[in-house]
Predict the structure of Ig-like domain-containing protein.
Amino acid sequence: DLKYFSFCLFLLCSDRVEGNTALMCLASGMYPPPVQISWKRQKGSKEEPAPAEEKQQEISGSRSSAIIRLVKNETLYNYDYICEVQHEGGKVTNQTRFKGTKSRSSGEMQLSSNISLLCLLYSVLIVKSLVYCCGLSLLMVLRTKGPAPS
């Protein structure tokens, strides 16, 4: 019995020094867990398996799996990368395409600002928790001391 799952493809980061980009394919919420996640690439109408010389790392959990693949930037700009998930509960195959573009500066800036906002939000939550805990501790101390003598 196949249940709902989410399936997405991310551009993780671009390394300007080595000229690589990390792509991640994530399949989560699958039951039973995914059987196989694979990469292909396409140029025009020609589809082929992703080359073996590109490094990839597989990460699996009980309800999710991911594959991170390092792709040379010049290759990324010339091919559509396809992540394919084949699921045993009914042999479902889903494809998502990532088309590389040479002008990613605005996307990188947006990603950077999103990360900054996330860090700011995380910091605010930590400060809020500290203030709450200190206030609670102060109230507990004042409560155990009892009323001040007159």
Summary: Strands lie at 6-15, 20-28, 36-43, 46-49, 56-60, 64-72, 80-87, 92-99. The chain has a mean pLDDT of 74.
